[in-house]
Amino acid sequence: MHQNLLIGALILSQLTLGIYSYVIKTIPANLSTQVLARASIFTALAVLAGYASGQPVMPSLSHLLTMGPLNVINIASSYYAYTHLPTMVSIPLLYIYPFINIFLSSALLNSTVHLWSIPWLVLSFIGVLTIILHKGKLSHNIWAIGAILVAAITESLIYISFKSGYHQSQFNGLFHLYAGSLIAVIAAAGTNLIAPFDFTASLWMPLTFFIACIGFVGIVVETYAIPLLSVELFSALAFFAVISAYIFTHLASESTPTLKTILGSVLIITGAVAVRYISEKQ
Q: Taking 50 as the threshold, does the pLDDT of residue 34 lie above it?
């Protein structure tokens, strides 16, 4: 029963986190402001949530120096890709990361991977492609495509850090990810490497709402589920973010979901249900 509730919560979190590409396109905050906002708000909330849950954060310089830069690379590469590629291209490229999760978990953590799960994960990925491929065309922006692939790899490395128990506790991990990012972006602010921070209230109000009320809740559920669910099941459920990303893209353009959207969603859900069934039987 607990696992069913966890699966439901993870699906909901992926549906909410899938909105992020839409937020980046609609809130005109530059990259340095995006990183500053997310890092400062998540750091504060991680400290408060850790204290409230009895898991107080334990700062570690080595963790800050490893996880902070990794997270900055993840945020920066995804931001660049989302702003230079159509959603129909960036999302499917990012969602090769569930397959990277499986490879790295097997190679680095000796996780058992049920081979019968792989075809169903492929089916879910076909659902992703069905949803986002628009008239069979892909972008030729090679830098943006490279950036989204970097985002996929760093996303998987962050997954591995939580799966392996490297952080000792969930909120400790979130603290090191975002406090390390905060240190890095503030240090860079004194150079010409990044754009100046934009503290315009009209930007920070929607950013703060999304980061605190949607983003943080989503990532808390996600990081809580990582060590408790098999790598295949977590990877299959991650594809649900594609559905909400595409729905919000349609809403922004005031268009209605197509038959391809519905078919792709069905394939994603079918693959996730099959992986759940296989995981239960093993």
A: yes
Residues 234, 7 contacting (CB under 8 angstroms): no
* Residue 1 confidence (pLDDT) above 60: no
Farthest CA pair distance, the chain: 56
Considering 26-30, 38-42, 55-59, 191-195, the range whose residues carry the highest mean pLDDT is 38-42
Distant-in-sequence, close-in-space partners of 76: CB < 8 Å, separation ≥ 6: 31, 35
Euclidean distance between CA atoms 63 and 158, whole angstroms? 12
Using an 8 Å Cβ cutoff, are 64 and 176 in contact?
yes
Instruction: Classify the C-alpha dihedral 177-186-145-247 as positive or negative.
Output: positive
**pLDDT tens-digit readout, 58-100:** 988 988 999 999 999 998 898 888 888 776 667 767 877 887 8
Distances (CA, A) of 111 to 32, 160, 208, 251: 37, 11, 37, 40
One-letter identity of residue 263: L
Percentage of the chain exceeding pLDDT 70: 86
Query: Residue written as tokens 């609609």?
Result: 26
Domain boundary assignment for the chain: 2-281
Structure confidence by residue, pLDDT tens digits, 200-213: 988 899 889 988 88
